[in-house]
Amino acid sequence: MFRRGAVVAAAMVVAGSVAGCGISSAEPDEMDRFYRQQVQWTKCGEEKLDAAGAQCAEVTVPLNYSAPRDRAITVTISRSRAKDPAQRRGVLLANPGGPGASGLAFALRVAEYLGGGVPDNYDLIGFDPRGVGRSTPLHCGWPVSTDMRSAGLDQVGFDKTLALEAELSARCVATNGATQPYITTRNTARDLDVIRAVLGEERINYIGGSYGTYLGAVYTQMFPERVDRLVYDSAVDPDRYHVPMVQDMGAPSEAAFDVWAAWAAAKDAEYHFGTTAPAVRATVTGLIEQAARQPIRLGEYDLDAHLLPMILFEGVAAAREYQDLAVNLRQIADAAAGIPVRAQGSLEDYLKQALRPQEDEAAQTMILCGDAPAPRDPTWYWRNIEASRAAQPIFGPLVNAPNGCTFWQPPLEPPTVVRNAAPALILQAMGDTHTAYQQGVGLHRVLTGSRLVTMPDRVAHGVIPQSECARQIVNAYLRSGVLPAADVTCQPDPLAE
């Protein structure tokens, strides 16, 4: 994007970067080898990136920025150069969220959605954050893919969840205890600034989705002089990161379930869950209760009351996926009725990943636990679960459950307090279940120079793929650098039948 001012000399880039990183024990000359490094660009070896003509490189960064002379790790980045060099406006970095999601190809996906001048005018930069994908990945050998599980229906289920989380945490300490404390958002933000210098840029431009908005907000707080234009889609309120952020998912998920239940009731002749939304809800809660008594067998997989709410949590998050959820629940209901069923389609994919994982998603837990502390008293979680059951019978025990952070070591740094006037464009869906609408409002509040684009009337996580109105506003901002004069409401695109 357009740079504000000439590119400074390399020595000034290095000095300015270190001054902004907030690590008093690291002298500028200790960081020189990272900020001045020359990287080797090669083919990425991934079909989508290679087809787009992108190249990849490994950037060396300190594991611990307070001790940069100690161990170093590598972060893999991708670059697809601007198609119109004469109109090049800078670099556009992108992160899809997670935390812990691979992002090497994410900038290309964003450019496909936006079109316009984005791929013509910007070098598109993707990256795998530290600990993820091709960036010194860390795994803990978990027997399940993720530590996010419902706590179940009673004390027995809660105790089972607590025991699982303790085991998962212990496995991570045993395998990565010396490394995992440094897999954090603040350190990833520092990595981004090294990437910026390696690319020879005075400022970066950034698009983040979901957790990627939190990473972007942290970067702007740590390196305010290094940002230009910022787009945050489905934002996280930094004041509620991370345990309250998860708790905020309960109410919109419960509301989204009712929307799906009304949709399913209208198609009772096809799916047979009930002719009214309350009847559909009763059918599904009955399945959870049955799974709590005895896991539901689907071929080689046992589906219990801890995992079934996770399937619902993902299934109700997008109106475009309602049919997929209905098909999956029909398989589960048939199996619960004693019909021999082998999971098929996306349900089989989900169960295979959740219960027979090739790789775990421990990096997500490392990031969350390394960023902000979680309560360690099990009774704190139990009280919140019990208090949530009346209003959130399906999702309350999920979003209030203990997780791996309950047993984690304390973070090495305090959470980042975000308060600045960065020129950010924030996009938020009112029906978002993963980053609740008030999350985007919260980020808008602490970024006093931001504008908020609200998308009503759609259950969705991610506004850019859902609204042509929003895409036009994003493209206009990326072209001109000028935010809308006021907050805006954008309607979603029509859903395909």
UniProtKB/TrEMBL annotation:
The keyword Hydrolase applies. Residues 400-490 form the Peptidase S33 tripeptidyl aminopeptidase-like C-terminal domain. Pfam families: Abhydrolase_1, Abhydrolase_4. SUPFAM superfamilies: alpha/beta-Hydrolases. Gene3D superfamilies: alpha/beta hydrolase. GO terms for molecular function: hydrolase activity. InterPro entries: AB_hydrolase_1, AB_hydrolase_fold, Pept_S33_TAP-like_C, Serine_prot/Carboxylest_S33. The keyword Signal applies. Keywords: Hydrolase, Signal. The lineage of its organism: Bacteria, Bacillati, Actinomycetota, Actinomycetes, Mycobacteriales. Belongs to the peptidase S33 family. Residues 91-254 form the AB hydrolase-1 domain. Residues 1-26 form the signal peptide. This is Alpha/beta hydrolase. It comes from Nocardia panacis.
